[in-house]
Amino acid sequence: MVLVAGVDIGNSTTEIVISDGSDPVAHDRRPTRGMKGSAESIRAAAALLRNLERSSGRKAGHVVTAPWNPVTTEAVTIQEEPPDTGRIQLINCAQHSVVGEKAVSGVPWDITTPMPGSNSDRTPIIAIVPGKTGYKEAAALINQAITRDTGVCGVVTANDEAVLISSRIAKTLPIVDGADTDTALCAKRIFLEVRPAGNVVQTATDVWALHSALQTRENEVKSLGLIARWVRDDRAAIVGVFDNFKQQSAPWSTETVTWASGETVNLFKAIESFGDHPVNAAQSLNLGTMRPVTDIWGVDVSKILADHGLRSKSRSRNIVVASVNHQNSESHGRLDDIFSVPVSLMESETAAALIGARTTPGLPDNSLILDIGGGTIDLVGENGISAAGAGELLSIAVAKVLNVPKGAADWIKRGPAQRLESPQVLLNEDGTRGFTSESGRSVPANLLGSLVTPGPGGLLPFGRDLQPAEWRILRQSLKLEIIANNVGRILRSYSDMTKDSFDIVIVGGPAADDELLPVLGRLPMVRGMGRGNVAGKLGHRYAVAYGLTQFERQL
Hints:
By secondary structure, this protein is of the alpha+beta class. The chain is built from 16 helices and 29 strands. It has a seven-stranded mixed beta sheet. The radius of gyration is 29 Å and the shape is elongated.
């Protein structure tokens, strides 16, 4: 009998099963090399098959695979758009390298233009330093203005040079850098406030102080209130009053999503409504380059942190997004030559997952298969839905939150962590303590105070600024937002076809996560949920790979 190899190249992991009829006789998996479906990933899969054949002593005479639709998972930092406040507008500026501790207001002066005369009427002036002007030249011109008593009371500069300018001028002034100086120069009057590191603006959150400083109209109090709420967590703020209502600061964000309806929405706003759209309701995604997509899923990581009190609210949002184009699979080329045996192509991975997962002992005949992979979550029954956003999206979110490499995040996301209190003592997430000697691992002294979790080479450190209980809350919140809420979206899309509650069996790598199953089991429309055991022996993995080996038996 000819042995059949099912080759499943996933976004994160490549899995292979060699089967003798209905019985799997060998299996193995490795991380996918390169993009799913790329020539590199296919060659690596062929190499894995040859290794499996050598180690098992069983040689496949036929390979079965399925079309590969890679998922793109990425992180992007975007800025929330400010409120519409008419002719009173916020002006973009940096928050990290500003100088001073003061709130001032005045009229803008481009330091590259003729200097104002002696300021006998004491009209305050805000010096504006365009990007083309270096810090030495800027400091010299500002010093001349100070010497002539022109009333310079603050500085706004385009370049990241606040500290350099401050150290070279003869007077202590509030200085804000990284600013949109082109817009600032169009204002008829400017308010500027800077506070020391660790502090937030005070005057800018006082509507009546702003009203007086900017000399605004009484009917503009509402706009001042919107600005006060907007800047309440900032260290620095610049507000301008303009004659031209249409004068706008530079765009805060250009990332967009276009839905299948034709509506184009800024990504910052779209992220809030991802769950309201059914699966495969997207048309294109623009994260700097426009590309076609059929489905998209993502979360605002910064909002999750702020909602749990773990970070202050910020308008610079870290968003992680997964997208897939089910209609643009890369050509496989000459697979027979790569694998050196005949290759058959099954219609889809979801069809293979259905065959493989339903070999789980004790599974009801009408159960749905939930295949959670690295790039997609597939729900398969009489119909099938494949949605973007799964294990890899969770890894990238964890990497972004903890500022660790994605490879480390793959291990950190899996389960509970402990904090190393001393070389001998570990603090658990529930407040109890354990001992490092119980793990049989030596602990380097430089890990003291870190959270640690088992990794491929011993204890993996991360999160010095987190308590174990905080990390537990955050980790489970990320799993809820990224995986469970996506499954909820998929179930709602599927229920439009079936209108029923479901028994579900979960397969795929993330099915091993003990924290994930209880969360998924609480979703509406779920009656029963458990892990798969493919062919009664392979566990929750290899559903697609084993299903591929059964392709011709199902015909």
